[in-house]
């Protein structure tokens, strides 16, 4: 679950930019706890860790993120949504990004240690989604 929450963060940070101020005022995420300025500032550091990995591997930010998720479970199938052929190709190319054992362990430790701050939904919505 932690990994999937992280993926949501990096997808939205790619779309909107580096800071909460980059998200349009009418965007629904502004009302979510995870996207408050304090929580966003903490959570974007996790995105930065995958950014460093992407630069080291010479790939996009999304590729090592998807590759890392794939090594977490033997029977996992990722279905990232996209509207553009280029993004589909980019996502598919994540299969060529290799995450070594120690790299996987360090990344998992980082996510477990740092954690994602803020609930996914406001309290009044949490019961509606069974959380």
TrEMBL record:
Transmembrane segments: none
Record's keyword annotation contains Signal: yes
GO cellular component, one term: cytoplasm
Organism annotation: Linderina pennispora
Signal peptide (from-to): 1-19
NADP-dependent oxidoreductase domain mapped to chain residues: 28-109
Xref: InterPro entries: Aldo-Keto_reductase, NAD(P)_OxRdtase_dom_sf, NADP_OxRdtase_dom
GO molecular function: oxidoreductase activity
Key words of the record: Oxidoreductase, Signal
Superkingdom assignment: Eukaryota
Protein name as it appears in the record: NADP-dependent oxidoreductase domain-containing protein
A Pfam entry, by short name: Aldo_ket_red
């Amino acid at each position: 679950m932690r990994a999937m929450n992280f993926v949501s963060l990096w997808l939205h940070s790619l779309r909107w930019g580096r800071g909460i101020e980059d998200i349009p005022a009418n965007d629904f995420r502004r009302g979510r706890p995870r996207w408050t300025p304090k929580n966003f500032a903490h959570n974007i550091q996790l995105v930065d860790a995958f950014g460093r990995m992407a630069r080291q591997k010479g790939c996009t930010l999304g590729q090592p993120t998807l590759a890392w998720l794939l090594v977490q479970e033997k029977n996992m199938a990722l279905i990232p949504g996209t509207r553009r052929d280029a993004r589909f190709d980019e996502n598919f190319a994540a299969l060529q990004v290799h995450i070594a054992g120690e790299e996987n362990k360090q990344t998992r430790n980082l996510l477990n240690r740092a954690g994602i701050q803020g609930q996914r939904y406001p309290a009044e919505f949490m019961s509606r989604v069974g959380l």
